[in-house]
Every structure is written in C-alpha cells, then in structure tokens.
Amino acid sequence: MTQAINLADKLGSFDERWSPRTVSEFNGHDIMVVKVEGEFNWHTHSDTDDFFLVLKGELDIEMRHTTVTLKSGEVYVVPKGVEHRTVAKAEAHLLLIEPSGTPNTGDVTTAARRTFA
pTM score > 0.85 for this model? Predict the structure, then answer.
C-alpha cells in the first residue's frame, strides 16, 4: 500500500447493507467498513471478540441482558462467546476489525461473502 485509505470514499463506493468491505489487512485481521440499517441476527463468535467503531450514525449493540448504544466516534468490543445483535434505526457506517475469515454471523454457512472495497 502506497497511499492512505479514505474511509468515506470506500463507503461511498457501495450501497448494500450488512455487507462488509475489506479495506486493508493488519496482522492477520481484516479492517472493514460496512453500512448497516435495521436489525442483524442474534449470533456469537466463540473464538474472537467483536470490534465496532461507529463512523457515522448510531448503533445499538443488544446483548441478552443489556444494550450498549454507540454514537459516531465511539467504540465497543463484544467479548467472545457473548450472544449479540446490532440494530441501527437509521443508516450507520461502521469500521470493523476481525481476524481474517471470521464469519459476520458466527456461522460460515450464513455469513456475508467478504469482498474488498
């Protein structure tokens, strides 16, 4: 890589929701951007934590006994093994960091296909 990555440009290159786009790799992890709106399905990641940074908008991370609300510029990490789902009442833009190959639903058979932006 010889130049900076502009996340707004990457997010402007697609319209799909819940379809992460890898913008770079870091020590065996994918750095991704995604647009979300509505509710995602309940799921867990048994082998890894789940990192969320809200770039634009607002995101609720619901866990069975609590909800964490993130606004633009805020980060939350769901610990591995904790069942959760994300809910965005309006379109939100996120930065995600996950070990390469981690299925976004916690299940390879239902995960969104990972693409590059």
Answer: yes
Residue 58 in contact with residue 76, Cβ under 8 Å?
no
Q: What is the largest CA-CA distance in the chain?
A: 45
Q: What does DSSP assign to residue 47? A: S
Which are the contacts of 26, defined by CB distance < 8 A and separation ≥ 6? 97
**Going along the chain, which residue ranges are E strands?**
21-26, 29-39, 50-56, 58-63, 66-71, 75-78, 84-99, 115-116
Answer positive or negative: Cα dihedral of 58, 20, 12, 29: positive
The tens place of each residue's pLDDT in the chain, 117 residues long, gives 689 999 999 999 999 999 999 999 999 999 999 999 999 999 999 999 999 999 999 999 999 999 999 999 999 999 999 999 999 999 999 999 999 877 665 666 665 666 767
